[in-house]
Design brief:
The protein is about 25% helix and about 30% strand. It is an alpha+beta fold. It has one domain: Metallo-beta-lactamase, Chain A. The strands form three sheets. A seven-stranded mixed sheet has the order 1-2-3-4-5-8-9. Strands 10-11-12-13-14-15-16 form a seven-stranded mixed sheet. The protein has a two-stranded antiparallel ribbon with strand order 6-7. The chain starts with a strand and ends with a strand.
Length: about 280
Amino acid sequence: MPSTTLSLADAEITAVLDVDTSIPLAAMFDGSSDPAPEGIAARYPDEFTADDWHFRDHCFVVRTPTRVTLIDAGAGPADSAFGRWLGVAGTLPDELGAIGVRPDDVDDVILTHVHSDHTGWATMSSPDGWVPRFPNARYHLHGADVDWMRSFTDEDDVREFAEVIAPLVASGRLDASTEDREVSPGLRVLHAPGHTPGHRCALLDAGGERVLFAGDLLHFTFQLNDPGFRAPGEHDPDVACRTRAAWLDRAESERLTVATAHVPPSPIGRIVREQGARRLRPR
């Protein structure tokens, strides 16, 4: 699958597509906040049909002269939690290899939140059980998400915790601190709650430009102009909507480049206004 790369000063950012598939709208929306699929299918044909959402799942590699950082770990293989739900397998390991990144090259893995389409390749099965897939990396995940997932009692969620989060804890490679902080020079993690309790964004400062890695602040293009739309699966929709609105305002006013996991046409763009409406212009 093609990747998208943006070079800024001494940093190179590559968007890597892990999954490209369709999800039935009926599997996502319960009727309380449906996005009027007939209307959005006409307005956003690259994202919707009357029945499905064209789901893309991007991760991001940030390379500097001294560090390699992976932001989010995709949906994972066919037997991951996301793969079991949708019957798909991601391709992240092969895509990383295609851009010259081996698992032991990665210094940091930032998991913006604990949902399975962002953590699927974080670990792998081995003869010794589940272990970190990136053996030299420090993993960063907000402690509120760790605690939240640990509290789940559903059988599938318990299995996911045992396969993904518990191995990171046991390895000693998980940083679950909760403060906003610098993970590496010029790259900060910032709490942006609502979608999950510990949902974070990452903000890169490189050569006078800044890039916001938005996690799941956005799922759909129409949320650029309707940040109050309650996306499916949000832990606290009211907080999520306020967080989304605040960050979109900031991204627009400060001319941040925005890297999004799920929003086309390009995973890396900048918010611009045309005829009074926001859109994401590819970089």
